[in-house]
Amino acid sequence: MNAAPNALTLPQPLLLDGGGELVDARIAYETYGTLAPDRANAILLCHALTGDQYVAREHPVTGKPGWWARMVGPGKPIDTNRYFVICANVIGSCMGSSGPASTASDGRPYAMRFPVITVRDMVRGLVGLLDALEIGTLHAVVGGSMGGMQALSLAANWPERAQRVLAVATTSRHSAQNIAFHELGRQAIMADPAWAGGNYYAGETQPDAGLAVARMAAHITYLSEAALTKKFGRNLQDREAKSFGFDADFQVESYLRYQGSGFTRRFDANSYLYITRAMDYFDLAEEHGGLLADAFAASQARFCLVSFDSDWLYPTAESRHVVRALNAAGKAVSFVELSAPYGHDSFLLDVPALDRVVKGFLE
Amino acid sequence: MNRLRPDLRAIADAVAPQARVLDIGCDDGALLAALRAEKQVDARGLELDAACVERCVAQGLSVVQGDANRDLADYPDKGFDYAILSQTLQTTDRPDWMLDQLLRVGRQAFVSFPNFAHWRTRAALLLGGRMPVTRALPVSWYETRNIHHVTIDDFRELARAKGARIQREWFFTGEKPRSAAPNLLAEFAVFQLSRS
Predict the structure, then answer these.
(1) Distance from B80 to chain A by nearest Cα, in Å?
(2) Number of other residues whose CB lies within 10 A of the CB of residue A141
(3) In this complex, do B62 and A333 lie within 8 Å of one another by their Cβ atoms?
(4) Per the confidence metrics, is the pTM higher than 0.90?
(5) Which residue in A105, A113, B63, B113 is a FRET match for B193, CA 20 to 30 A apart?
(6) Nearest to A360 among B51, B60, B75 (CB)
(7) Can you tell me the ipTM of this complex?
């Protein structure tokens, strides 16, 4: 989609879990703060499914503040006066890193010819970026949701690269329910005639209707029932009575439609297919012989996991599953379930206890 | 640094430097922080209360929120040099199971608890006919988390039944150490144990 100002092409082909390779992989990234002379103050921030590198900087498409601007910045819990924060767009995405919308060697967009990638492949790309930036060991790797999967994957597969691992509102594997919701989204996209087998880039129309439905379904999973009830209840949208039709009578309908259509302006439908697939394939134990504790055997990092009591997408039990494995492996691990009303999205919202935990853990 | 409670002070002084320590029911991390500062230990904690865990993590301590009655089973055998249970034994579902777990996850264990046979407690029950509310047990019967009151002699008996060897013991009345007739005169006890 957009050509990002900060991007580099990895010098080596990226060898992928699916067996193929990605040649000339582009990684678009943003940095915040200053790298110390000893290069030891770097924090890699990993973004979620539809996130990007604009963690604490105005988004070039939407004009909105960065997605974690409340957490990252001068004097914030992830203090850019102290730390050099790197956030890169993952491969498969659409904010400047190689993805299905990128141009393949034949001059046309990859579309569905882009290789199916995994979370570990995303992290391979990020490690390639760290190599290029000559950052050996990170002060910390930090991420929420899919970003947390990347943080755990980095700890498991590149154990020497991070001293601290902070994984928020995440899981070590996608559950059947997680996969089911993602499949719903993918089928909504692929059922849109404008998707055209993924070859819509040159066309007049884009699969916006399908992508919007995918986003609407996913958005519900990011919120708690209590949050929806508090925000909308059964309130009607700009009307006094039900219309006895299929307009957005209810505020919650109007809100979801707005979320869906807004999303299509900044995200590529094929990227949504590829990234949700990568998340569904994620199973850290499976990668390491079936035993999650073995995944972390070589790590010397300190770990911190945080869950939220209202998150039903990646509930506390999933974080505890990781904590149990880390304990069994004898690793230094902290874990806390924080109370917050917003569901999975709590990690992005105003939860002061999370600020304190993040700040303290990074010390 | 705040002064440690006497039972925690005794434990902190007895722990060997650079040891691996698990503090079960570590509260706000006072003992772990002291052990880290004074003995450079590898300090870990397990705590039920989220606000306490948050304060521990904010100090850079490795503390897991969880219920020791259940989660202790997830820790590997002899993963720690010391397992510490301070002022918590009497609140656990099964103190006998808990003592087994302490001696399983730790090469040695420290256990401290309020002594229910202290003369004030005895007097409150005998003379007052009411559940004791004393300096050592300040919470009334319907609010207290202490569901398994224990005396020093009871604990010795449990340790013997579990094949645990008592290596050291400390007794306190308030802040003061006490050695004579502890089951009658001590408000608090600390035991250092190992499986013989």
Answers:
(1) 9
(2) 31
(3) yes
(4) yes
(5) B63
(6) B60
(7) 0.89
